[in-house]
Design goal:
This protein has 1 helix and 27 strands. By secondary structure, the chain is mainly β.
């Protein structure tokens, strides 16, 4: 469905944050990541029980190649796959990551970290066989800033943080069928008006000019998308044919300064990294209740497992694993210490 064919009435709902005691954060494995694992970001939980993490390398200036690592069930870090690079920039810049129904791994390649030239970002597909990566290939290109990524059924959903509108800051979500992605040709998106663009909205914040970011589905098939700059969670519902039937501002978590990467757990809770606030937020989709689970001072170097510019988090069992992308920003300063924080929910 083309964007111009529909309009949403957005309903704003404030989610009051409860104030439980903040959880202590610790270092994954009790130590920093190796030097070759700079700027961890997107996370996904595989059917094998491993957490797969994209390693962007932006904080190291791509001294090492961007890659995927995984966290074993006993919390060991393992190298998994080195990503192919963009032909123009000579770098890969992975953020969001997900497994799709075809068994392959899909990663957003956000080239806006590498170049100011528009339409260079894309989606990389890692072909999997018997649980092992075989090769990486470019599945989609033409994005300005591909970011969060999610899958449901036979479709892949990719967040575009910047649609390139000239009069407003617009971002949105593209949807692709896995059948067309495996046709052998690299697809190219074209922004507003592209038939794959199913959702779009505006970020109104003048201080944080960052749009859509994390995305994920609950068990009922509702799609949640974070508006980073406005610190809002959007909720969209679809009919049986996949057409968008409603959209609303589902929640504005109290105390959140931004909403970056998102993951949805098996209980339909949203786990969200507050990049600007150096915090982790939980939102219960069934009740609308939100809670700040962990928060650390700014600036932080994460030496004791403190949050250090968190960009995404994911729950596995009674732990939440947090990727600290460690970027220079208006409030954060990059450092040489690269970390993944762990939050124990029952301690």
């Amino acid at each position: 469905m083309r964007l111009k064919h529909f309009t949403f009435i957005l309903l704003a709902v404030c989610c009051a944050c409860s104030e439980p005691a903040l959880k202590k954060t610790t270092l994954l494995g009790g130590q920093p990541l190796p030097e070759c694992c700079a700027s961890p970001d997107g996370c996904t939980l595989g059917n094998d029980g491993y957490i797969y993490v994209s390693v962007n390398q932006v904080a190291s200036g791509w001294k090492y190649p961007a890659k995927i690592v995984r966290i074993s069930p006993d919390d060991a870090i393992e190298d998994f796959f080195t990503l192919p690079v963009n032909g123009k920039t000579g770098k890969a810049s992975p953020l969001g990551i997900t497994f799709a129904a075809d068994g392959n791994l899909y990663i957003s390649d956000n080239q806006s970290f590498c170049t100011d030239e528009p339409n260079q970002a894309g989606v990389i597909r890692v072909i999997m066989e018997n649980g092992k990566p075989q090769r990486g290939e470019l599945a989609v290109t033409g994005f300005n800033a591909s970011n969060g990524i999610a899958s449901r059924g036979n479709c892949l959903y990719v967040v575009e943080t910047d649609l390139g509108a000239t009069d407003r800051y617009m971002s949105g979500v593209y949807r692709f069928s896995l059948d067309e992605l495996t046709s052998g040709d690299t697809l190219r998106v074209t922004g507003i008006g592209d038939p794959h663009l199913i959702l779009a909205f505006e970020t109104k914040s003048k201080e944080q000019r960052v749009g859509a970011n994390g995305a994920g589905f609950d068990s009922k098939g509702n799609l949640y998308v974070n508006n980073f700059g406005d610190a809002e969670i959007m909720k969209y519902t679809f009919d049986a044919d996949g057409k968008t039937v409603s959209g609303e501002v589902f929640c504005r978590p109290e105390g959140a300064l931004s909403l970056d990467g998102m993951q949805v757990d098996s209980e339909d809770n949203l786990w969200i990294a507050d990049f600007a606030g150096n915090a982790i937020i939980k939102v219960e989709t069934n009740t609308g209740k939100s809670s700040i689970i962990a928060k650390n001072k700014i600036p932080s170097d994460g030496v004791n497992g403190e949050l250090d510019t968190p960009s995404e988090c994911i729950r596995r069992g009674n732990k939440v694993y947090v990727s600290n992308i460690d970027l220079n920003s208006g409030v954060h300063t990059a450092d040489t210490l690269q970390t993944i924080s762990v939050i124990y929910l029952t301690k």
